[in-house]
Amino acid sequence: MNVILKHRMVASLKNKVPMIFAILGMVMMFLAVLYPYGMNWYGNRAADRFVALVQQDQYRQAKLWYYKTCANLPGAMGKDASRYFRQKTEAGLELWTGDYLAQQLNKDLLDSRIDVLSQIGIKPGNLTKCRNIIYAQELANHYEVTQAGNIIKATLQIYPNDPLLVAKQEEYRKQLEQMVIYRGPIQHIFFHPLIAYPELAFDQDAMSKGFNDWFVTIREFNLIIESLYKNNYILVNINDILEKRTVNGATVLALRELRLPPGKKPLILSIDDLNYYPYMIQNGTVFKLVLDKQGNIATYSVNPAQKEIIAYDNEIIPILDEFVRKHPDFSYKGAKGIIALTGYQGVLGYRTNDSNSPAYADEEKQARAVIQRLKATGWSFASHGYGHLDTPKISLERLAVDTLKWKAEVEPLVGPSEVYIYPFGSRVSPEDARFRYLQQAGFKVFCAVGSGPYIHFGPEYLLMDRRHIDGISLCTQADLLRDLFNSESIVDYSIRESTAFYSNCPP
Ligand SMILES: [Zn+2]
Predict the structure, then answer these.
(1) CA distance 43 to 69
(2) C-alpha angle 131/324/165, rounded to 5°?
(3) Residue 423 Cα, ligand 1 centroid: separation in angstroms?
(4) Which among 57, 221, 437, 456 could disulfide-bond with 463, CB atoms 3.0 to 4.6 Å apart, if both were Cys?
């Protein structure tokens, strides 16, 4: 009996097999029909959230969400989901690039967003296009419009007839058409390190008058830069305005053609003695330039209350770095300024003058890192002599020893420079043996101090005057400075020494 029952059950199950398969098949078909709808819903939702997180600049959360919802899905499903992520980021990238071009999104944020996409390997189809547009726009912002146009032209080969690229090409073509060859004077102004702590500079000690005469305060510098920018000046690198030609075996220097939008005027800015000599530190400058965690230049100082301060708003370099970041059209090709260094007390606040000191290796290493960053961000270097000696007052032999010391100690750090910035603003004539010695030592541009823009080309050299921007000029030479800015609205009367030294300054 049991055997018969068992047999029957097996037989009936056998009869049901086709039906089970049919049901299973139907379920699978049903799922297969549903899958695209499900994936569509899921993919869109997950990708939307990812793009939203990136757009809110929550990069860590965006990455986690991507791994949770897309990267870790099995095989074909992951592949399908990543398609939605790619499509959505493509749309996002288009939008962010548009915001950047409309100056509604800064480049650093945009770069960070693109970095996230690269890090997790999402390659939206418009990545190259958007990257190239951003790169081209950065160049165009700094007046490199021809190069910007070339990048767009090359990108159009990859994305033919792309409307944004076509529009950019036309925009740069028009910009280029409007640019003119600059024929006016080339201004060169110089500063000393800024007074970061006026209470130390103007404390009525023996150095106070010197600081009142030769230095400017943070507020004055900020107002000067804003005025120069409003008055259509743009920073240029001294090396960008020079052209070297070889005539009969000799190098001849000439002015390079500078194409600028009409009205824009080139300006060279130099900073003397950015060495942070102990006397400067004691009287209110910062202590040294340092690199922050992101590799940007900051300043280090100890304030009068003995607190260590890392800052960005109390010295020319970080202030200008930030100003040019905000106003790229204040800089031609990203130029900032030229830093004139001596060597006898080290450079930039690092005591690189004493190779026997136990701290030397560390000081040198840090100085090199700072210098590398400065060079990468538009700063260049000049010799200001090794020992800050007054060239016309010293012998040829003493000048030679001084120059060789600079070449042995400072040049290995900052690299070779063709610019010589005379200490004390003095000069020697090109016929002088000391001038010829400096020429033989490799210097081609010689900067003295004068009251207006002066440039003179000789065979194989350029003489250039710089205008001193300091207490003396701000307070007593307002009319001379009128072509640059109105110094009356700049002087920090409340902070400066209230001595009767300056006849034009209020008492
Ligand atoms: Zn000097």
Answers:
(1) 9
(2) 25
(3) 5
(4) 456
State the distance from the centre of ligand 1 to the C-alpha of 116, rounded, in angstroms. Answer: 46
Cα dihedral 350, 353, 355, 361, rounded to 10, equals 20
pLDDT value at residue 398:
98
| Bridge partners of residue 288, in order along the sequence | 300
SS percent in the chain: helix, strand, coil, step 5: 50, 15, 35
Say how far apart CA 216 and CA 472 lie, in whole Å.
Answer: 10
Q: What is the location of CATH 3.20.20.370 in the chain?
A: 181-489
Total Cβ atoms within 10 A of residue 494: 9
Cα(271) to ligand 1 centroid in Å equals: 9
Tens-place pLDDT, residues 386-415:
999 999 999 999 999 999 999 999 999 999
Residue 203: how many CA atoms within 13 Å on its side-chain side?
A: 11
Whole-model pTM: value is: 0.87
Q: How far is the CA of 338 from the centre of ligand 1 (A)?
A: 13
CA of 102 to the centre of ligand 1 (A): 43
CA of 193 to the centre of ligand 1 (A): 10
Tell me the residue type at 9: M
Q: Quick one: DSSP state of residue 333? A: G
CA-to-CA dists, residue 487 to 5, 231, 476, 505, angstroms? 113, 13, 9, 11
78 or 312: which leads in pLDDT: 312
pLDDT tens-digit readout, 329-357: 999 999 999 999 999 999 999 999 999 99
Distance 485 CA to ligand 1 centre (A): 24
Both structure tokens of 123: 């390659």
Residue 335 and residue 341 in contact, taking contact as beta carbons nearer than 8 Å: no
C-alpha to C-alpha distance for 85 and 142, rounded to whole angstroms: 35
Angle at 400 between CA 394 and CA 406, to 5 degrees: 105
| Strands 338-341, 380-383: pairing kind | parallel
CATH number of 181-489: 3.20.20.370
Measured in angstroms, how far is the CA atom of residue 378 from the centroid of ligand 1? 22
Residue 292 corresponds to which amino acid? D
Q: With beta carbons less than 8 A apart as the criterion, state whether 88 and 47 touch.
A: yes
- What's the CA-to-centroid distance between 60 and ligand 1, angstroms? 49
